[in-house]
Amino acid sequence: xxxxxxxxxxxxxxxxxxxxxxxxxxxxxxxxxxxxxxxxxxxxxxxxxxxxxxxxxxxxxxxxxxxxxxxxxxxxxxxxxxxxxxxxxxxxxxxxxxxxxxxxxxxxxxxxxxxxxxxxxxxxxxxxxxxxxxxxxxxxxxxxxxxxxxxxxxxxxxxxxxxxxxxxxxxxxxxxxxxxxxxxxxxxxxxxxxxxxxxxxxxxxxxxxxxxxxxxxxxxxxxxxxxxxxxxxxxxxxxx
Length: 240
Fold this sequence. Notes:
The protein is an alpha+beta fold. The chain has helices at residues 2-14, 25-36, 43-54, 61-71, 74-79, 82-87, 92-114, 122-133, 170-180, 200-213, and strands at residues 140-146, 152-160, 184-190, 219-227, 230-233. Strand 3, helix 10 and strand 4 form a beta-alpha-beta unit.
């Protein structure tokens, strides 16, 4: 009888799901998050709990801390590509959990931008751009197309390049603005180095696009450079 009882006990332990165990560590994390809100958990704890949903029988705290150390921040983990996450040891399910968290954050912030005039909700715009672009490992560029009321009509990723360069073609930007009937555009690109300071090439390109669009009455409101350490507005710096 003792052996049978011991077997039942062992089986009951094996059936416990750490993600739903009311007395477990994840239960305490969940309670703190639900009761205290987003700021109640540290970055590694947020990632630990998220990964625990995809890897319920694994201790995900060391994994979460290791990922943040490897990619530099929680944002760096969320924006890392699937191949990099796989090399870091994540399963397909865990990669999916990370990517759905990233997509949810980006859509939430983009939704706030879409319903208000962009120039009147600048903080919402830069919050969205920071989440979408600040932690990318390669340089990328996008163009925000606005109507005459400065409402966003199209947000397009126009280039993804190397770690230090993304190609933006003046003619293509002008052609697309005319196709969409844009009244104005905002140029955006990121600096993977983290430093958002605009380069001479950034300034020269912006001036070339301004000159190309001027005959059509299309304004370039700004060129925003996004980095992990913040953002820079060429118009705000008096460079255009």
